[in-house]
Amino acid sequence: MRLTRQRKIIIENLSSLKTHPTANDLYALLRDENSSLSFASLYRNLEVLSRDGLVKTLDGYGQSKRFDARTDDHFHFHCLACGTLVDYIPLKKGKTLVAMLDRILLLDKSLCSVKIEFNGFCKECLKKRRKKV
Ligand SMILES: [Zn+2]
Ligand SMILES: [Zn+2]
Q: Ligand 1 center to residue 38 CA distance, Å?
């Protein structure tokens, strides 16, 4: 795959965001500076980048796929109220849990992958919920 200017811009912007945006979010952000960018070409580029492992696609958070420039194994925290999706580090730097999962995957040959999700309420939503009570 050729790392075209547009793909570079996508990766750079995605890396600087901690929000794991949808294609729509990204488009809204990039459109201002790149008037020639169409949603279709952004989407196509995201597909190519994720196919080639430069971008991670995250499913199951709302209706649209979310995209992540971090492609190593890491965990996410998902807010059930507002949909916020951020990296989450459980335990000490997440190493213990990651190492444990790696070991399980290594030992049990019937497994291909493992998915762990942390769901709850972000700080903002927790505040709102407390106020209501
Ligand atoms: Zn929230
Ligand atoms: Zn992430």
A: 30
Give residue 78's Cα distance to chain centre.
Answer: 10
Compute, in angstroms, the gap from residue 44 CA to the centroid of ligand 1: 30
* Cα Rg, the chain, nearest whole Å: 17
Q: What is the DSSP string of 15-74?
A: HH-SS--BHHHHHHHHHTT-TT--HHHHHHHHHHHHHTTSSEEE-SSSSS-EEES--SS-
Q: Which domains does the chain have, with CATH numbers?
A: 1-70 (1.10.10.10), 72-133 (3.30.1490.190)
Q: What region does 91 belong to: left with phi over 0, alpha with psi -120 to 50, or beta?
A: left
- For tokens 């997440």, the residue is 94
- Output the pTM of the full model: 0.83
Listed residue (89, 78, 68, 61) closest to 121, CA to CA = 78
Residue-wise pLDDT tens digits, 80-117:
999 999 998 876 665 678 888 889 999 999 999 888 88
Expressed in angstroms and rounded, the spacing between residue 121 Cα and the centre of ligand 2 is 17
